[in-house]
Amino acid sequence: MSLLSWPSSLFLANLSSCLLPYHLLLAQEFTGDTNCLTAANLCFEDPSCSTNFRTLQQCLTGNGVQRLEHDARNECMNTVLALQSSPLSVCKCKKGMKKEKRCLRIYWTMHQSQVPGRQGQEDKRKISLMTMRYHILRFLPFVTNSSETHLTTRVNHCLDAAKVCNVDETCKHFRTEYAKFCMKPSSRFGCNKSKCHKCLRRFFDRVPVEYSYTALFCPCEDSVCAERRRQTIVPACSFEEPEKQNCLSLQEACNKDVVCRSRLADFQTSCQPSKKSVSFCFRESYATCLQSYTGLIGTILTPNYVSNTSLDTSIWCSCTNSGNQHEECENFLNFFTNNSCLKNSIHAYSNSSFSSLLSLLTTTQRFPFNIPNKEGSNNDAGMLFTLETEEVKAVSSISPVL
Q1: Is the dihedral of CA 332, 338, 344, 347 positive or negative?
Q2: Residue-range definition of the domain harbouring residue 107
Q3: Is residue 30 included in any domain, yes or no?
Q4: Which interval of the chain is the signal sequence (predicted)?
């Protein structure tokens, strides 16, 4: 295949128009186990499908630098169309699955041309509803309940949550695992952040939310409790760095990692704010927002509480020295720091009734979410946070997949 004259950016734009629009992809009903590893195996058994997939890989080689001739471009377009009838066109990956990275590489090979880049403001408006979704099979079984009551005694719920985790074998095992690697210095330079992140992902991927969420989103009445909550993910290793790098550089590094890129896309979709929603979440689901938020813990974009005085969150970066990209940088950072959907999701869970917390010592019980009613009131969730920036700015642009 000759690589001479066609701008790859134009090729990708045309390529994306041939792929199934993402909002239609979401509307499909998936049946069976159509993960991308299985789909790839089925494809490779078919000589025609196998050839087309390998051709597509060649078409997307070069990180958007190479240029294709007209004939080569047409061949790539035809390859995309041919693959639409294969299992690869509707495959997905499960968070925390075996060979997750391999699965995601296959997924992004099929879909990366749809990932939005640094485009105009009008394009961002169109893209906000089509952001690539990381398909997670496990769904959070939260229920709605507006009649829960609060404890009136002054207790440390975060300490209680740690005790509850210790009596569950799964929670205790994975909590001990990440604590071991996140707290143990690997050398005089500090902890093994890579191993710490991997263990944190295993904890939030495999431990039931009844245990992991009560530790991370426990309600606090004083700074002692709140500091324990902030220390849940051992931020000295998993979150903090000696210096804060630019947020766009951090985003670019995330996009180079298939796991981080997928979980960021999931977070931007699931926690998309909306002023038109009483919950301030476009998808009207606190559960999916929190699921995608915890999915980022253990990646380059690990978020955490910024202090022991509030539920405010952020990632470890700044927009200093952003030059003419300062607004874009602030939009990206604001999705973590000034996101009304995320704040309400955390606040709603944190203010859910913890009166049944100790019952987890002997049984498994779901904690309820208190979703605002049509009038916007919420008996237990407390005040709703409003979005100060324009809604379209809150949906940060996703850098081109590298």
Answers
A1: positive
A2: 36-113
A3: no
A4: 1-27
